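In practice, a research group might receive sequence data for several interacting partners and want a quick structural hypothesis before committing to experiments. The following worked case mirrors that situation: the sequences arrive first, and a predicted assembly follows.
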Amino acid sequence: MNLLEITSITAGYQEGIDILNGISLQVQPGSVTIIIGPNGAGKSTLLKTIYGFLKPRLGQIHFGGQDITSNLPHEIKHLGLSYIPQEFNIFPQLRVEENLMMGAWIFRRDKARVQQQLEHTYGIFPALYKFRKARANTLSGGQLRMLSIAKEVMTSPSLMLVDEPSAGLAPKIAAEAYEFLMQTRQALGAAILMVDHNMETALSLADYVYVVDMGRVRVYGPKAEFDVERIKGIIQECLMGA
Amino acid sequence: MNVTPELFLNFLIAGIMIGALYALMAMGITFIYSIMKMINWAMGEFYMIGSYAQWFLVSFFFGSAFWFLGVLATAVILFLVGLVVQWLLIRPMFSTGMERKDEYGTVVTIALALFLRNLATVLSGPNTRSPDIDLGRIMIGGLPVSGNRFAAFLGALIIIGLFYYLLNYTWLGRAFRAGSQNRVGIQTVGINVLRIDQIAFAIGVTLAGLAGALLAPVFNVFPENGAVTTMKGFEIIIIGGMGSLPGAALGGLLLGIVESLGSVFIDTGLRNVYGFIFLIIVLLIKPTGLFGEKERLS
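A structural hypothesis for the assembly, expressed as tokens:
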């Protein structure tokens, strides 16, 4: 059974202007699925729609067999989904440990579990333990990305929606960001649905690839069917309007 | 006027005392602003409701001996009123994802202020009232201080202390602080942002109402008594820095002291002008206010 099943989703930010035009997509449990496409294709909008920030006008979204099309973000979080936006998704003036604890909000009353998850997260990201008393706004770009991911690890999600993990980062820090994601996947066995511009790296991590354009899936398939040159060719066709 | 050290100290103490109450009001405004990114222009009217509630409860229920029960009951009433008002008037614009929420918030809360002020006039008449509370005089370091003022000051300190505890040592407080820094972030961790807004609004107006209740025996209770208080609240949050709670606390104390000392050294009649002069001086030296930041992260 698919972990996430998106069927013919149509959505947009303003009435009459749809960004997603009947897009369909599936994510297998434990897999890494990447979404690639030209700017304005609707990649980030798709993630926002899945996580409930944007209400689809048409179509359905099922997660773990449950219909989440009309759910709000805080309800979706309870189901085992996490969302890591493009920007550093942290609370800059809270301490690192407070940021991680906020990640455990949905089971905050279970003190033992919060503590256990904190230790688990520090186990995956030992560097954060050293900075646990520091305010988040004193961390470097790479550490902030690590914290953004680690905060989501607190709930041990079964699917992580990741939007441009390397956006705005220097190449060395971007490489670290991918490493953090893969560490997380390994530790949790979580599936990842990732939007990315960094084709080479994304492709090297992926199990499945979707190329989207104008809010629709243009081509999709297992990673074996794709290489960077083919994807570049498809995107070029998209940009030429073919 | 011959200003003796005793007189100076006396006015300084009076300034600090009233400053703590100003701080309470300003913290309410700042708290709502920092979470919801909108200004509640009706804060003075919640102060007014708090002062009327205290007058009513002391006069008809608890009596002057149990005035503090009136303050507690006022807190409960204001919190419930805040929940309902937010749900009816403010929540719709946040739940429908409309743009320019702050402008809508401005219009709605100004209209609410006018409505509440007129409702108070209709229900209670334009006359001034005052709860029958007389705590006499107490001596601080050999100086006589009004018992009512001192009780209001102590009450404000206790409330500020509880508010500080809530913000820094509870999950809800951490959610408020997180929400003020990253509104999307709190939704991604599973917090119902609309509920956080509602509770924050209710707490903010409760702080204003408590300032009104504590000051009810010090200043008169009348339908317009929130208007000046609102202006002072805004002066304070600009002095302290928009969105900064420590700034609101310090700004309140400083405004109280400046007004009090200005009354001694210059002219009592210009009491409300000193705050604005102080505000201009602060902005000339530090345009973002004492604790303000040029730009917040996230």
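Before designing any experiment, note the following. Chain B touches chain A through 20 residues (CB under 8 Å). Strands of chain B lie at 137-140, 143-146.
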